[in-house]
Amino acid sequence: MKNLLNEQLRQFNYMIGEIDRLYCDAALKMGLTDSALSVLYTLSAEGAPCRISDICRLTGVSKQTINSALRRLEGDGVILLRAVNGKQKAVELTEKGERLAKETAERLIEAENRLFEAWTDEERAEYLRLTSVYRDGLKKAIDEL
Predict the structure, then answer these.
(1) Is the bond preceding 49 in cis, omega lying within 30 degrees of 0?
(2) Are the CB atoms for 69 and 77 separated by under 8 Å?
(3) pTM here?
């Protein structure tokens, strides 16, 4: 079969996979599932309460997966779910959840901040610009499939 990927795209895809794996490793190291870490990360980064729909949008994780994580976290006493605007629900951290978020997601965010702060303003801006261009182009290409 013909190899369709050029070498740079192969490297790019490999790096994306490696970055995803690193976040999986972080979750495992912290005793969490990937989706639970995604929820705690979003609540820490965006502030609680946060609507479930916003957690899905911000993480890129499916609603079904997020809802499974929320059920587990709620059962463990880490979060509370509150009805807002009719059918929508918002997620809040309990005291236990705040402690867990500090020990896990907030440590990860602090590490990410240190890494980003090591770059120059220009490097950060260029990385964000190129990532946006790639994301927007990929969305358009997928819409046209």
Answers:
(1) yes
(2) no
(3) 0.89
CA distances from 92 to 14, 47, 64 (A): 35, 9, 19
CATH architecture of 34-143: Orthogonal Bundle (1.10)
Q: What pLDDT is recorded for position 62? A: 94
Domain boundaries, the chain: 34-143
Q: How many C-beta atoms lie closer than 10 Å to residue 27's C-beta?
A: 21
89-104 residue pLDDT tens: 999 999 999 999 999 9
The DSSP bridge partners found for residue 24 are none
For the beta carbon of residue 30, count every other beta carbon within 10 angstroms: 17
* CA 10 from centre of chain: 23
Contact 21, 93 (CB under 8 A): no
- Confirm if 70 and 91 have CB atoms less than 8 A apart: yes
| Pure H helices in the chain | 7-29, 34-46, 52-59, 63-75, 95-103, 105-117, 121-143
The confidence score (pLDDT) of residue 1 equals 59
